[in-house]
Amino acid sequence: MSFYIGIDIGTSGTKALVMDANARVLATATSEHGVSVPRAGWSEQDPNDWWKSTVAAVGAVLKKSHIRPSQVGGIGLSGQMHGLVVTDDAGECLRPAIIWNDQRTALEALEIEQKVGGRDKLIELVGNRAMTSFTMTKLLWLRKHQPMVYAKIRHLLLPKDYVRLRLTGEYVGDVSDMSGTLMLDQRTRTWSGKIISAFEIDKDILPPVVESHEIAGRLTAQAAAALRIPAGTPVVAGGGDQPVGAVGNGVVAAGLMSATMGTSGVVLVHSRQYVVDPEAKVQTFCASVEGEYCMFGCILSAGGSLQWYRNVLGDMEILEARRKKADPYELIMAKAATAAPGCEGVFWLPYLTGERTPHADPCARAAWIGIHSRTTRAELARSVIEGATFAMNDALMAFHDRGLPVRQIRLSGGGARSEFWRQLQANIYGSACVTINAQEGPAYGAAILAAVGTGRYASVKEACSAAISITRIIKPQPALRRVYHRYYEQYRRLYPALKDEFARIALL
């Protein structure tokens, strides 16, 4: 029997997963790596740290799974999107990678839209507006501020592509991840000649792009020695963590949506056709399903809002959890459940780190609105959970506006582990929500892609159909759905009312 390894290069660490030929997860392991903040708003990582954590995570997961290295039939990759990795001819990194949450490129983002003739024209060319997270903004910043480094660039890669380089010696990208560079024509799934020409980018630094399930190289002798896996083991292209995470959640058909409540919140819907949001509230990327697409929105501090609440205001719950040997989040949830839906008009705006969807606004700030003399800790806690979910619903509304059907929402992340939060999501989304048997996200999706690319399954959709099943259905409660619809309509009015004030606060 063959086994498949999925590797996900995240922001805080690399996760490795072993899956058998029947798509059952045998073991997972994670190795951490750090983030450097050279200046406020900057975010960088050493690509060599990704390689070290990959080697460590793969070694650990092989040991835990008790499989023989010779039984590994293929390796799949997933990783944080938008990061800029630049190397010389020898594949040596010229500087630390500028990663997805770096905010230094606001001027470059503005310049890109101006130079191509406006935001609408850019969306027409590459499917998305320019935001600080996207790779090309970082490349132009590098050309402007570090020209000596820029002049030495021979290859541009994304984070997981650098790890593939170390695995296979091949410079290759995939269409899902490269959709987040602002340089890919998603309709043709090829590099945009108009963008490359307009910004005088040397096309030779851009890697060839393939579909996510395609074999993009094989383990070199050097990589094989590091991983203790036979040389020649195939490595499939994989993709960005969000499209590959959709594979891991089985969101590979029209009408399916994933709602992943982690530190950030990601809402993603699959589409067979190429659809863009002319208002740029949500983003469009090539899916990790050949010839198809996905649209998604990212709420920067969804679950992060609850984490902030625990860290800043959850001292009582933390102490009680220590006494009871319990999880403080469970105690916060229990407290929140005692408050009335809508929290008597107390709203939480979850903009602790600015916002991306639907308000691409780095100046946005978190706030409680509506606090009064009757407000208790229960209302504060519940309002944070409701506010994060209202923000997720913003993205869902954008999908509805584009005519994309949503018949089933698959919950994952921290918001799927709490019965209270699951039901709250169903009530706010106004749609049936389900949990599934798979909770490993991008690493699992990467392993599935490896199984598809090496012939175990005929297609990604066939693999997901075999691997993923529904474990629970949560239906919205009609009365509470009506309550939350009223409160959500009020929530939607708060950011526009405060937008200008947020900008002024940012200048103080």
CATH class of the largest domain, anyone? Alpha Beta
The CATH architecture of the largest domain: 2-Layer Sandwich
When the domains are counted, the total is 2
Instruction: Give the helix proportion (percent range).
Output: 40-55%
Radius of gyration: 22 Å
Strand content: 15-25%
Count of helical stretches? 19
Can you say what the CATH homologous superfamily of the largest domain is?
Answer: ATPase, nucleotide binding domain
Shape: globular
Mean pLDDT: 95
Query: Which fold name fills CATH's third level, the topology of the largest domain?
Result: Nucleotidyltransferase, domain 5
N-to-C CA distance: 62 Å
Major beta sheet, strand line-up? 18-19-17-16-22-23-24
- Major β-sheet annotation: 7 strands, mixed
Overall strand count? 24
Spans with pLDDT under 50 lasting ≥5 residues?
none
Structural class: alpha+beta
Keywords:
24 strands; Nucleotidyltransferase, domain 5; alpha+beta; 41% helix; globular; 508 residues; single chain; 21% strand; 7-stranded mixed β-sheet; 2 domains; 5-stranded mixed β-sheet; 19 helices
Write a structural description.
The protein is an alpha+beta fold. The chain has 2 domains: 3-240, ATPase, nucleotide binding domain (Nucleotidyltransferase, domain 5); 303-436 and 477-506, Nucleotidyltransferase, domain 5. The chain has a 7-stranded mixed β-sheet with strand order 18-19-17-16-22-23-24, sandwiched between helices. Strands 3-2-1-5-15 form a 5-stranded mixed β-sheet, sandwiched between helices. Helix 13 crosses helix 14 (377-401).
